Amino acid sequence: MTVTLHQGDIPPTLHFSSCVAIDTETMGLQPARDRLCLVQLSAGDGHAHIVQLKAGQYAAPNLKKLLTDPAVTKLFHFARFDIAAIWTYLDVLTAPVYCTKIASRLARTFTAHHSLKTLCSELLRVDLDKQQQTTNWGADLLSEEQVKYAAADVLYLHKLKEILDASLIREGRMKLAQSCFDFLPSRALLDVAGWDKEDIFEH
Predict the structure, then answer these.
(1) Is 118 exposed, middle or buried (0-12, 13-18, 19+ CB in 10 A)?
(2) Which of 79, 131, 136, 176 has the fewest CB atoms within 10 Å around its CB?
(3) Which H or E run includes 2?
(4) Integer Cα distance of 80 and 95 in angstroms
(5) Given strand 73-76, what is the order of strands in its sheet?
């Protein structure tokens, strides 16, 4: 694993293929209150790029271009949260997207456990260390442990997608999954607008 830390944006020379794994780290779980601190990216090649964003410094034109590129699928685990955080602070709506949590919930109905740690353990035999999950991501200087943790959250998403796609196709749920992925940006906007707890599709 190699990790490159960028300040404020990715360089214009950095290019990804048709699918890039993305994750975010924030100061908490409420996008309107808890600012976006990191955006992690990986092409699935064992290399991670981490963009550190300081408070009030969210220009990041190259990153925004990637996040909205219609030719590049943005691969997340629990995309709903990341899309909302990106929208709130970078002011762009990320699409098209793929979410390994949604894929797992549709393909792996025999279990109620769909965390990234669980998927990596059960499908890849990789044990993710989650000890840094609730550390201070807004610190000016990140620790080596924080950087490794942040990178790990994107390094395995491509392999998980490959396995989950095979399961979705086998169970005849690929089209349904794609419909869910297509709706995720709107689901994130509903969260930001105040419908995060209420299911508007209920009677």
Answers:
(1) middle
(2) 131
(3) strand 2-7
(4) 12
(5) 2-7, 47-52, 36-42, 19-26, 73-76, 97-99
Segment (H or E) for 36: strand 36-42
Q: pLDDT per residue over 38-80, tens digit each? A: 999 999 999 999 999 999 999 999 999 999 999 999 999 999 9
Calpha distance 85→100 (Å, rounded): 18
Q: What's the one-letter identity of residue 80?
A: R
Write the burial class of residue 93 (CB in 10 Å: 0-12 exposed, 13-18 middle, 19+ buried). Answer: middle
**Side chain identity at residue 83, one-letter code:** I
Tens place of pLDDT per residue across the chain (203 aa): 899 999 999 999 999 989 999 999 999 999 999 999 999 999 999 999 999 999 999 999 999 999 999 999 999 999 999 999 999 999 999 999 999 999 999 999 999 999 999 999 999 999 998 766 779 999 999 999 999 999 999 999 999 999 999 999 999 999 999 999 999 999 999 999 999 999 999 98
CB atoms within 10 A of CB 34: 15
Amino acid at the residue 170:
R
Q: Which structural domains are found in the chain, ordered by start?
A: 2-195 (3.30.420.10)
